[in-house]
């Protein structure tokens, strides 16, 4: 999956059906490159690229600068839509730097932290999309070794087991 990234702090899940990217965890300075790649990989799929930060509990200023840089490179009617919880204070942080007037950057407030989507629910949603695409057990074996690097799928006659792994397979 192009734009997918994971390490000990962050999971980036690009969508293959919409121009959107979901992030979970902490976005620190070293994540600037993967963040930029994931977002720019969604361009060309529509006028709006959505970056869902509802699963993020820390966003470094350098990562915020990447969001602004991507938005500044867009031309209207294209727009970068950033969805985040109020705890990240993106409105205040953007206003403090004079970035709140960028026409190609739009903030959308999300639900409070306790109501944001759980990582497990997002993974299950992604698995369901992949599952529907599989047509036989050979595909399922490939899916088990490949899907997001986070789950292992073992198939036996009539048995399917999902296990959470501590780190992705390489």
From TrEMBL:
Name recorded for this polypeptide: STAS domain-containing protein
